[in-house]
Write a structure and sequence with these properties.
The radius of gyration is 17 Å and the shape is globular. The protein is of the alpha/beta class. It has 5 helices and 5 strands, in the order αβαβαβαββα. Strands 3-2-1-4-5 form a 5-stranded mixed beta sheet. The chain has a single domain, classed as Pyruvate Kinase, Chain: A, domain 1. Helix 1 crosses helix 2.
Length: 144
Amino acid sequence: MNIDLLANSGCCIAFEPKENVDMLLCLTETGNIANFLSKQRPRQPILALSTSGQVVRQLNMKRGVVGYKIPEHLRNKREELITFILAVAQEQLICNLPTSKVIIYTALQEKDPQKEAVTFKVVGGKSPDEDEEQEEEQEDQDDH
């Protein structure tokens, strides 16, 4: 699938006020995803993680992108890395999970350097009403 199309889809979600998206997170080796997201000019910050120092320096020059260099040994531990980054973002008040949403883009480098397999997913997004309903259900179960 075209990277530009995925970036546009994610930014359309982020532009909707009712969606409550706090940030866009990219795991990339080449920086292509962050470049395409930056062209869409979302109001949310774009956090781009890469193992390449050169890519991180270039991404820091893009509008709305903050590049982070990650250690090489974390390249294959994507889920652990995402969990860690989301925890740090919450501590720094960049995002407010689970009530807000974070759009996460990941790119797997193919053998051909011009091609990346890109996926995106949305995490979070529980409304405060859902939390209250779950607490009420838990209290009702405890009473029985």
